[in-house]
Amino acid sequence: MSVSTMELGDGLTVSRIGFGGMALSDVYGETNPDDALRTLHQAVDRGVTFIDTADVYGEPRPGTEGPAGTNEELIGRLLADRRDEVQLATKFGITGEVTDGVATRGDRAYVRAACEASLRRLGTDVIDLYYMHRRQLDLPIEETVGAMAELVAAGKVRHLGLSEVTATELRAAAAVHPIAAIQSEWSLWSRDVEARVVPAARAAGAGFVPYSPLGRGFLTGTLTPERVAGGMLRDHPRFTEHFAANQRVVDLVREVGEETGASPAQVALAWLYAQGEALGLPVVPIPGTRSAKRVSENAGAVEVRLTAEQKARLDGAADLVQGGRNLTTSADWISSGRE
């Protein structure tokens, strides 16, 4: 069975669940490109046709500077055969590795050059949804979105999105051009965006695309300390020193799953759909996986229905969490750090 569709904002219709391409890069350990491509084909076969990537995802090439682009090249291999089936999202703005003090750019010249580079790597002539991945904080967001709007006028981009913006930044951007989607981390254990960003998105007519909707794998109950130690989460307290304490969240998700006949991943995703309905805006999560089996499992979440009592219990999960969601020591990296 194929998944249904949902309209985000600005007339952009996508599959009700998306696929986060970052999982197919080496950020969580080594990957095999051919296996990754097979997983992408499985996703599209299953009806998960909203594919998310970014120019910065992937391993940097020795001797080169700027975004790696290797994840876009992988997605380009999928698009070579199935472009008409895919709603393609990519991002620009991060100009180096994700570390403390990471560099960003949003000036007009960079926006245009980044788009051209992404189009080349993806092997397509248009991007369905183009995100500002992170904003350049010393440049008015209106300038960056104005440059993005020029790409829409030129036919290189169809819709605009923003990632990890504050409510104030979103309102300023939406005054320049309609915003189809906001992408930020959001899950039953990372809910800071609900205070200001989600209401601003609803008011702007933008949909919400939660990244890491499964808590970077933690909420599935399959993440181990050994896997954490071998990837990008090895210095993150939520996943290291607080790993054992945060199992209480996993236990709660697993408990609800046993009641509904759903997996922990499906429960976590079903909670996001229910929360989107409660808060009045379209929500399309983009879980990532390297496993074709997990693609089908995640897609099955669109059929899971939580009772009001189960939803209320899951609402309390955030109170059990120890450790914040920011992967860096810079408060500016996530929207709540700037609000």
Automatic annotation (TrEMBL):
Q: Which Gene3D superfamilies match?
A: NADP-dependent oxidoreductase domain
- MF-aspect GO terms: oxidoreductase activity
**What's the superkingdom here?**
Bacteria
Recorded GO CC terms:
cytoplasm
Domain NADP-dependent oxidoreductase positions: 16-317
Sorted UniProt keywords: Oxidoreductase
Name-wise, this protein is Oxidoreductase
